[in-house]
Design a protein that fits this description.
- This protein is an alpha+beta fold and 946 residues long.
- It contains 24 helices and 28 strands.
- The strands form 4 sheets. It has a 10-stranded mixed β-sheet with strand order 3-4-5-11-12-13-14-22-23-25, with helices on one face. Strands 6, 7, 15, 16, 17, 18, 19, 20, 21 and 24 form a 10-stranded mixed β-sheet that branches.
- Strand 3 (112-119) and strand 4 form a beta hairpin.
- Helix 17 packs antiparallel against helix 18 and helix 18 packs across helix 19 (779-801).
- The longest helix has 28 residues, at 140-167.
- The protein is globular and about 80 Å long.
Length: 946
């Protein structure tokens, strides 16, 4: 953000604001603690944009809005992160530090910015480079207390917003803006718990032996640290200024309250993180509707073949993280499934979540536009009034509650590296926010020795990072741990039920739905002018989980429910993360796998030390009845329930550790949320013949075949894949083969084809002509493909599928996930979340490729059989491709890139640009699109502990 110079009078106004809310006082400096043993030898690096500091006082907010300044360490990693895209091609091992920060243990004396002790048994050192807290505890309680204190210093308001979101209470905290309503409704629908249920989950963990009891003790001291900071910051007037904007604290008198954190807030935050990143499955109702439409269109046999190809459950052409010849069957459809509960056509309706709405709550909760990620200059220089309307678009960005399946990993065993030691470049992509959802830290104390990233509010352990002589990371795996059951509705008096009935049948009894509610009311506040309103959020719960839809089956009313294996077990993973941080628990790759097994969310875990690499796919994988099809709704009958299921506490028989995809010292591992292993069913339609993981796998495989792989090699491979358009590298060759089956006679059309061919010949990258130009090389070809894709996919498939089946399949998975967030639906319909960085995870890329290869006469494993494009005729299909290409060339730029609050219509670079969405009042500058992890490590350990 660039601001013009403001007059001296305004500077004086900001100075007055600063006198009202002071910065935290500097404590007397204790001695610098000795660093913990570190076996990485300056070969561990990491990066997390935009910056570590996510707290801005009232004075900081006013200064940002009026002068364009930002608090220290709030933006000092974003430029280094962005620079890699322009500099990766020249990267060497010696220049990694130009794009990543040092991730060694400890702080050199000349790098110390501040040393302080929030209590006597813990010392916190902040470094000058990024302001990261290095926490040294003389007791274990002191260590986790310090972690809580430091995290609250950096991310207090973010943590507060997230705990409200997880509870479904954002509007009563921050105002009734549509995006606040959208967020609380999305998260409440996934995890509608009572306070007693949250507490029971903590009690359950504490009962898990010595480690469980220690985890609860660690959580308590962590919470004490958070609340100690809350109390001191409020009293000292250096709390986040967003509490002023939301009306919780008066900026003049300091009257008001920042609510202390409770232990149950940690369960809520864990549920929120798990819902976004650690789930898999669900969507069975949409699957059923699409499958039924295909059966209606083609008949049962041919319709099933087309469905299975689109579904790609176990696509033989899909790349897999494990490629050592082993298979790990899980979640697949049996040959003759029983207990499938297919709804009557047209009978499905969503279960209402909102009740008794009034006032502004009667307006749609779905925001009609993306909020402005910038911070427009206020119309007044008055410090308090400058915050007026700061959160009119919501205190959180739109789409934040959507499930995310991102992150990537590249790991090469020492057998194929230049040094003989394994190398890794890996990290999670958790979206881009300001402040970031993740927070950086180093923790050193009894039984804890780690450095890396954690989700703010859950950082009493490092969740992703490194230990003394090992490092680890994860990608979202999304194997199927969520099933949909159809429960028969009933009336206790024996009368005929309707779709609106409040009772359901369970094991022969007619039981009432259990309801869990949140009552939210709001009035206008300084930051959010939304008029007064309110509603009740009501979740209808069954023994099989919350109700999501109602329908009829053979004319009988039913409710569809979501049965999730992690429901009522949101914090069970705490023991696994505790082990990751304990050097005594992790002495080998096998130790790490045993720790990862304790994590019940669905992640692909990767490990490296000086000698070994390892992979383990975690998750509470349930043992289903062998006749059940987990991709379809299931009849709620004991014969089809999970094996060993106890509805009282949602426990069940779990797949043994050995049956989870796992490996030690495979030649290399890559993961970009692709298929884990042969036999492991995809939970959605994207894990098929073309998936973005192909971009990594092909590059890393080539490096391994060459040999002598370095950290720089892997970093370049990751960065190049991160700017490459998947469609160009993996689908355009098939499109060109069809087009090239006959000469293109029209010169204008030939020129269009030539532009795409030229772009592909130079790598199919979406990069600037030079860093900072904000113009793409091959801009016209990029725009052409972006405009062509929705026309192409519809023209290729809709005539054969029919409109109803085509639209039902797009409801299961969109046809595209472009960098701009547009060009994802039918022509002229823009859907998706722009500026999110992550791209090409979802889309009909494999389906397009399979069908085109079938048209060309190839035998396609897992293909459609009879091709769909052009009725299977090569000439007719070619006409479809060329006709839609010519049509795409005529699409105005303003329709392809329609613009939003941050970009003018037609601005291609800006449409793709990565924006850190505000959760609070501090905005960040746009950076170039890049499809890479948010937090990223580059690691190579030369030695290990004796």
């Amino acid at each position: 953000m660039r601001r013009a110079q403001r007059p001296a009078a305004l500077v004086a106004v900001v100075a007055v604001a600063g006198s009202l809310l002071l910065a935290p006082p500097a404590a007397a400096g204790p001695e610098l603690p000795e660093p913990a043993p570190d076996y990485c030898g300056d070969q561990c690096h990491h990066i997390l944009p935009p910056g570590q500091n996510g707290n801005a006082t009232f004075a900081d907010l006013v200064s940002h809005l009026l002068l364009g300044t930002r608090p220290p360490h709030s933006d000092d990693q974003i430029q280094k992160y962005d620079d890699l895209i322009g500099g990766y091609s020249h990267l060497t091992t010696d220049t990694i530090r130009e794009f990543f920060n040092d991730n060694s243990f400890g702080v050199e004396p000349d790098e110390v910015e501040r040393i302080y002790q929030p209590r006597e048994d813990v010392t916190i050192v902040r470094d000058k480079t990024a302001g990261i807290p290095h926490v040294y505890g003389t007791t274990r309680d002191g260590t986790t207390f310090g972690a809580g204190f430091a995290t609250a210093e950096d991310k207090l308001f973010l943590m507060d917003v997230l705990r409200r979101a997880g509870r479904g209470e954002v509007t009563s905290f921050a105002g009734g803006a549509p995006m606040n309503r959208e967020l609380e409704q999305q998260f409440f629908a996934v995890a509608p718990y009572t306070e007693q249920e949250l507490q029971r989950q903590l009690d359950s963990v504490a009962a898990q032996g010595e480690r469980g009891a220690q985890a609860l003790a660690d959580a308590r001291s962590y919470l004490d640290g958070i609340n100690a900071y809350v109390e001191r910051a409020h009293r000292g007037r250096y709390f986040p200024g967003e509490y002023v904007a939301t009306g919780h604290v008066d900026p003049i008198t300091n009257a008001g309250r920042i609510e202390p954190f409770r232990l149950t807030d940690l369960v809520v935050l864990a549920a929120l993180v798990g819902a976004q990143f650690g789930g898999g499955g669900g969507g069975e109702v949409r699957n059923a509707i699409a499958r039924m439409e295909l059966h209606e269109r083609f008949g049962p046999e041919r319709g099933e073949q087309v469905w299975r190809t689109f579904r790609g459950e176990n696509d033989p052409e899909a790349i897999t993280t494990l490629h050592d010849g082993r298979s790990f069957p899980y979640g697949t459809t049996p040959e003759d499934p029983r207990g499938v509960a297919l709804p009557d056509p047209g009978s499905v309706t969503e279960q209402p979540l909102v009740h008794d709405a009034y006032g502004s709550a009667l307006e749609p909760a779905d925001p009609d536009s993306q909020p402005d990620a910038d911070s427009p200059r206020p119309a007044t220089d008055d410090p308090v009034e400058s915050l007026r309307g700061l959160f009119d678009d919501g205190v959180v960005p739109g789409g934040m509650g959507e499930r995310r399946g991102m992150s990537n990993a590249l790991v090469v065993s020492g057998e194929h590296t230049a040094s003989g030691n394994p190398v890794a470049v890996f990290g999670p992509q958790t979206g881009y926010f300001a402040p970031q959802l993740l927070t950086l830290q180093e923790l050193q104390g009894p039984g804890i020795s780690s450095r890396g990233a954690s989700f703010a509010g859950l950082s009493f352990y490092t969740l992703l990072g490194r230990g003394q002589d090992y490092a680890w990371s994860a990608t979202t795996a999304s194997q199927d741990i969520i099933d949909t059951y159809a429960v028969e509705l009933c009336e206790p008096d024996g009368s005929a039920p309707t779709k609106e009935s409040g009772f359901y049948r369970f094991h022969g009894e007619c039981l009432p739905f259990r309801t869990v509610e949140r009552e939210n009311h709001w009035t206008p506040n300084l930051g959010d002018d939304t008029e007064a309103g309110g509603y009740r959020l009501v979740s209808f719960r069954t023994r099989y989980g919350p109700v999501t839809h109602r329908a009829t089956i053979d004319g009988k009313p039913v409710a569809f429910t979501t049965a999730r294996t992690t429901f009522l077990h949101e914090v069970d993973s705490i023991v696994g993360f505790q082990m990751f941080n304990d050097p005594a628990a992790i002495a080998s790759a096998q130790d790490f796998q045993r720790a990862a097994q304790e994590i019940n969310y669905t992640f692909n875990w990767f490990y490296v030390d000086a000698d070994d690499t390892a992979y383990f796919n975690s998750g509470a994988n349930v043992v289903r009845q062998p006749v059940v099809d987990p991709s379809m709704p299931i009849v709620s009958d004991p014969a089809y329930e999970w094996q060993g299921w106890n509805p009282a506490d949602n426990t069940f028989a779990e797949v043994p550790m050995s049956a989870h995809p796992n490996s030690v010292n495979q030649d290399y591992y890559t993961s970009w949320n692709n298929k884990q292993a042969p036999g492991t069913a995809a939970d959605t339609m994207e894990k098929n013949a073309v998936q973005r993981g192909d971009l990594l796998d092909s590059r890393v495989q080539a490096l391994v075949e060459r040999g002598a792989v370095t950290r720089a090699d892997l970093t370049r491979a990751m960065a190049e894949a991160g700017v490459t358009d998947l469609r160009v590298e993996r689908v355009l060759p098939d499109l060109l083969r069809v087009i090239d089956s006959a000469p293109v006679e029209d010169p204008d059309t030939a020129a269009l084809v030539g532009s795409l061919r030229d772009w592909a010949a130079e790598g199919g990258k979406r990069v600037e002509t030079e860093p900072g130009s904000r113009e793409y090389a091959h801009a016209e070809a990029i725009e052409l493909l972006d405009a062509w894709w929705p026309l192409l996919v519809r023209g290729q498939f809709e005539p054969a599928l029919g409109t109803e089946a085509y639209q039902a399949l797009t409801d299961v998975m969109g046809i595209n996930e472009s960098p701009s967030g547009w060009q994802n639906g039918e022509p002229g319909l823009q859907v998706g979340q722009p500026h999110q960085g992550s791209a090409f995870q979802y889309g009909w890329f494999g389906q397009v490729s399979k069908d085109l290869r079938g048209v060309l006469g190839e035998q396609v494993p897992g293909g459609f059989g009879e091709p769909l494009c052009g009725g299977g005729d090569l000439g007719a299909c070619r006409d479809v491709l060329l006709d839609t290409l010519v049509e795409a060339a005529a699409v105005p730029s303003e329709r392809t890139y329609p613009g939003d609050a941050d970009c003018e219509p037609g601005d291609q670079w800006c449409a793709d640009a990565l924006i850190h969405n505000k959760i609070g009042g501090i905005a960040q500058d746009k950076i170039s699109w890049q499809n890479r992890p948010t937090y990223q490590q580059v690691v190579e350990f030369p030695t290990r502990r004796p």
